[in-house]
Design goal:
The structure is a single chain. With 422 residues, this protein is α/β, with parallel strands linked by helices. The chain has 4 domains: 4-102, Fumarate Reductase Iron-sulfur Protein, Chain B, domain 2, CATH 1.10.1060.10; 109-155, no CATH class; 169-294, Rossmann fold (3-Layer(aba) Sandwich); 304-415, Rossmann fold (3-Layer(aba) Sandwich), CATH 3.40.50. It contains 24 helices and 9 strands. The chain has helices at residues 4-9, 18-23, 35-40, 47-58, 64-73, 79-83, 91-102, 109-121, 125-137, 147-155, 187-191, 193-205, 221-225, 229-242, 255-262, 264-267, 273-285, 289-296, 317-320, 327-334, 357-360, 362-377, 389-398, 411-415, and strands at 169-170, 178-183, 208-211, 249-252, 286-288, 309-313, 339-342, 383-386, 408-410. The chain has a 5-stranded mixed beta sheet. Strand 8 (383-386), helix 23 and strand 9 form a beta-alpha-beta unit. The model is unreliable at 1-6 (pLDDT under 50).
């Protein structure tokens, strides 16, 4: 039972946390798939350990500040959900808990500055481009700066592709089979606009009309990941208005964005009914580009001949674990003549990107990134494909020192007859 004192301190949304907490039977099936348990090796950095800590805190037995480091270490990859035989919805715990605890924390000046920088740059493509250019000039200083600040500068791309402009509407080729709206993302717009263009090409070539809402913005996933629920809700509300067209689905090409938008119902739990209803309706329309293409039927491009290539497919955590999408990308890739699909070891282990994790926890993220690259390269691929911009940039970054660099692309680029990132 939660004590009366602790009840007074909790927000109303914690009524919804009791069920997933009590569903955990502490069996330990989650341990081998948890990246922090694998790399840090202690129980409090495992899913069942964190659930126990959250329970004790919510019951008023532990001060929230005592468990903050263990909660912060969690990547939120949700591999534990995939491996859990009891069906514990860990995502319904970690995000709400972070939102609640963030309101009570006293962070240091450097931490506050870093989080402010993340929230005010990455969700805004133009600002992100400017910040990346500035960061590239300071790269020689990165090893001498505080670790998290140095990581931000080190991870910033040295060059960015030209800015992509999008039409409001892209008509279907031939007979129209469907109509969708495309989320073009924020960081992805700056880092790899060719992904969105490839998605538009593949969708229209398969008879799908594509709408690109002009007033759309960041999905809010980054803010959700770090417990900034107010900023996440503001981003979501903006997109409720932007994606008001009558469409069959709202398409995401980034696993993190798609997963985040499917969590809007949790994000708005306890909010005004108007916004709670909008969140539920909006989330119901979210579909990953590969899942959508697989459901409506995909025809490989006939006018582009691809040489035989071996493709190592990397499962993005927020596609495989959060959205339960593994077969769709594989079905699509196998349908393209000339592609041999390769399966790396430890598909379920996170690459270490996970929102802002590789900035806030650079050492742990580096270990996971190098581990992922090693497993991918062991398949001896010609190209690596994945469904998330965060994974793509993380794997690319940690592939730089390998003997045989391999192109890393989004799955939809291969479906489009693949072009290199840029």
């Amino acid at each position: 039972m939660i004590s009366q004192i602790s009840k007074d301190k909790l927000s109303p949304q914690y009524a919804s946390m009791k069920e997933p907490i009590e569903a955990c039977v502490h069996c330990g099936f989650c341990l081998p798939t948890c990246p922090t348990y694998l790399t840090m090796g202690d129980e409090m950095n495992s899913p069942r350990g964190r659930i126990f800590l959250m329970k004790e805190t919510l019951e008023g037995k532990i001060d929230p500040s005592e468990i903050d480091p263990f909660i912060d270490n969690c990547l939120g990859c949700l591999a534990c959900v995939t491996s859990c035989p009891s069906g514990v919805e860990y995502g319904e715990l970690i995000s709400p808990y972070r939102s609640w605890s963030e309101k009570q924390r006293e962070r240091g000046v450097l931490e506050r500055l870093q989080r402010f920088a993340l929230l005010k740059t990455i969700p805004y493509p133009n600002r992100f481009r400017i910040a990346s250019k500035l960061a590239s000039t300071f790269k020689p200083l990165a090893p001498y700066l505080p670790k998290s600040l140095g990581a931000m500068i080190e991870l910033a791309p040295s060059q960015l592709p030209e800015k992509q402009r999008y039409d409001r509407l892209y008509p279907a080729t031939g007979s129209r089979r469907g109509r969708v709206a495309l989320l073009i993302g924020c960081a992805q717009q700056a880092l790899s606009p060719k992904i969105n263009q490839a998605a538009i090409n593949v969708l229209t070539q398969n008879g799908i009309e594509v709408v690109v809402p002009e007033s759309q913005g960041c999905c809010g996933s980054l803010a959700m990941h770090i417990g900034a629920s107010k900023e996440a809700q503001a981003a979501a509300k903006k997109n409720f208005e932007a994606f008001s067209d009558d469409v069959d689905a709202i398409i995401s090409t980034a696993a993190g964005c798609g997963s985040g938008m499917k969590e809007y119902e949790t994000l708005f739990a306890g909010a005004d009914k108007e916004f709670a209803d909008q969140a539920k309706a909006f989330s119901a329309k979210i579909q990953d580009v590969c899942a959508y293409l697989d459901s409506v039927g995909f025809a490989p491009p006939k006018d582009r001949e691809m040489p035989p290539i071996k493709v190592a497919y990397h499962d993005a955590c927020h596609l495989a674990h959060a959205q339960k999408i593994r077969s769709a990308p594989r079905n699509l890739l196998r349908s393209v003549p000339g592609i041999e699909l390769l399966e790396p070891a430890e598909w379920e282990i996170c690459c270490g990107s996970a929102g802002s994790y590789n900035i806030e926890h650079p050492d742990a993220a580096k270990e996971l990134g190098q581990r992922k690259v090693k497993n991918l390269m062991a398949t001896n691929p010609d190209v690596i494909a994945t469904g998330n911009i965060g994974c793509l940039t993380q794997i690319e970054f940690h592939s730089q020192g390998t003997d045989k660099p391999v192109p890393i692309v989004h799955t939809v680029q291969l479906l489009d007859g693949w072009s290199s990132r840029g």
